[in-house]
Amino acid sequence: MTDTRVAIVTGGGSGIGLAIAERLASDGNDVAVFDLDGATAKAAADKIVASGRSALGLTVDVTDRARIDAAVVEVREQLGRPTILVNSAGLDGFDPFLKITAEKWNRIIAVNLTGTFDCCQAVVPDMIAEQWGRIVNISSSSAQSGQPIMTHYVASKAGVIGFTKALALELGPKGITVNTIPPGFIDTPMLRGSEKKGLLGEGVEHHASLTPVRRVGRPEDIAAACSFLVRDEASYITGQVIGVNGGRNT
Ligand code: NAP
Question: To which CATH superfamily is domain 6-187+221-234 assigned?
Fold first, then answer.
């Protein structure tokens, strides 16, 4: 159990973000779920409310700074000052390097990297006011290993790792930690979507058989690591890249 805090989870309507939102609520936090798909955000929040915590599900496109700022005001008014932020909203992309259009490159950078920047900038003033904060950015193991036909995605996620390290140094003196979890091969709609498009070779189960722990990751695996990083007792962990990947990247 943690003290009750107010958490914002972007991309919290699906996959990893949804598992994190549910886990932070079961740990005793109130949770605001931000997602491009407002219906899934609201469904996630309704489930949390039914479990006995306060929650809010909001339609938020993380590429829209004005909307992020308005949503943070709503969170502050309805739940209290947010002091936990998990950036899980993300967009993947599979394109040979020479086929990546400027539009596609810009969109992936906008969602994965600039979206993370904007959400942090919108929420950090509340953390500074409380002299306590926890930021967890969901990056990707592909930024550790590289990945063909994903230069745009990998660049965006490598950017998130560098951003996390730099922000941690700046916010450490203010009681705010900033860490990143690069997931590897987690069973979510994003992963299954790639499998359906034939982008994962022989498929998820084949890759699982080659993974050191011999299974595909679950969203709950990421949520467990995130749950630890946002606790009081994790105050000496900042600027770190905490891989959760079944041993696929070491
Ligand atoms: P997911 O199930 O597709 O969840 C991503 C969520 O982000 C979706 O609800 C999506 O909404 C939302 N989203 C997309 N663009 C957004 C935007 N502009 N503003 C707000 N929300 C937006 O995928 P996931 O696998 O859980 O991915 C979560 C994070 O983990 C992502 O950052 C991803 O890059 C990262 N990751 C995942 C894996 C993996 O193996 N699954 C591996 C490495 C990294 P819509 O569905 O409406 O688009």
Answer: NAD(P)-binding Rossmann-like Domain (3.40.50.720)
